[in-house]
């Protein structure tokens, strides 16, 4: 099974007091709920996967990318057996 590289990109931050959220790179718009903030991010990016760190007041977009396995080394060839001509 191939290994996966996980990429998290923060998109929302909590704007106290209460359940208000803003985009990470701006103070506007201010969303009155987490659901409104995630809907806004979805409309911008069409992303479906999120990680929410509620205690830290952060929302991330979650991506998984498969890491390609390296090409196997070719077998060694030996002149002793007539492999080199």
Word description of this protein:
The protein has 85 residues and is an alpha+beta fold. The protein has one domain (4-67). Helices cover 14% and strands 32% of the residues. The chain is built from 1 helix and 4 strands; from the N terminus they run E-E-H-E-E. Strands 2-1-4-3 form a 4-stranded antiparallel sheet, with helices on one face. The radius of gyration is 24 Å and the shape is rod-shaped. The two termini are 39 Å apart. The mean pLDDT is 87.
What spatial order of strands do you see in the largest sheet? 2-1-4-3
Total domains = 1
The tally of helices reads: 1
Mean pLDDT: 87
Keywords:
85 residues, 14% helix, alpha+beta, four-stranded antiparallel sheet, 4 strands
Task: Give a brief description.
Helix content is 14%, strand content 32%. The chain is α+β, with helices and mostly antiparallel strands.
Helices and strands, with pairings:
Layout: E1 4-14, E2 21-23, H1 34-45, E3 50-53, E4 58-66
Antiparallel strand pairs: 1-2, 1-4, 3-4
